[in-house]
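Quick one: structure for this chain?
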Amino acid sequence: MRVTLSDSSLARYARRFVWLDLNFDGPENRAFLARHGAPGTPTFYVLDPSDERAVATQIGAMTLPELTGFLDRGERAFLARGKTPPEAALARGDALLALDRPAEAAAVYAEAIRLGGKTWSERDRAAAARSWALMSSNQWLACAQTAAAYAPETARTAMFGRLVLAGMWCVNQQASAPWAMAAARTLEPLAAEAISLPSTVRDHRFQLYQNLMLIAEARGDAPAIKRWGGRWLHELDTTQPHSDDERAALDIARVDAASVLRDPSRVLPALIESERAMPNDYNSSLRLAQMENEAGHFDEALAACDRGLAHVTGPRGRAWLLETKAEALIRKGKGREARDVLAEAMESARAIPVAQAREHNVKKISAAVKEAEKEGK
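Got it. Here's what it folds into:
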């Protein structure tokens, strides 16, 4: 996204917007995130400077046309020019999403779709926003059914990939359920189509690869897992990063692909190279540690965790590194040492400012503590 945000065509917005980039895990941003939440990264807001109320919200990466459309929509909502009833409902949904109330936002987005009708110009965006709000509120069935209902008739713009991705993600939360299998029959070929479209933003294409692999895994289709994983890793290996941010994004995808393929050795050389290229980025050490663990290289994983901990900047990153370190200790049979590390991880997890991320990490670490207790007996 940083490449998109640096595009020269955005210069026309310079006098109309003040740009603010917040680190999700930075302690100095805790108050903002506690108020607004952030269902995922990246999340974008257009804020009214008088009260920090979000007049537009977007979760996930965007293409340049999506980004400019988002900024224009936010400006219109701020100035309250020509707001029709469906547009007003869309803005209310965005405001609720920015307040970390995705279930309420999903209901309001549904109302916007109803008010706008089939010819409404923002129908595709509202359907995608509803599916993401349903996903963020763990309403898997409604999310998958929304995507399956709207995606076939959605224009093949970036919004198509966004909508299909949300549906695929929700299907994979309960892939063996009858409703999930029914939705998958509609969404799986659409996901394959979205991957091939130049309009699909790269982050979403990578996540579509992952979800196609997960659906194949759920039905025991090893050839499909290998086929999609091979295509994904080939794209990653042939993409030349132009910045550290882009390198990091490619490495996140490498870890995801290798994890489903269960082939960590396939990506270790690239991750080692990235840590050398970004020695002060704790995330590069974390990704390497995760794959070293998967490869059974526990001493190497512990060393990578310690390198990352020397540079970590916030509670979420620290909790994740400590949890990964404890995993290596558990797998080495050092349950008592792992429990001490997990106690530190829990302290960090409880300091995470975003409620959803905090609860998720506390739950994961609690499960790891139980495993460490078994090893320590």
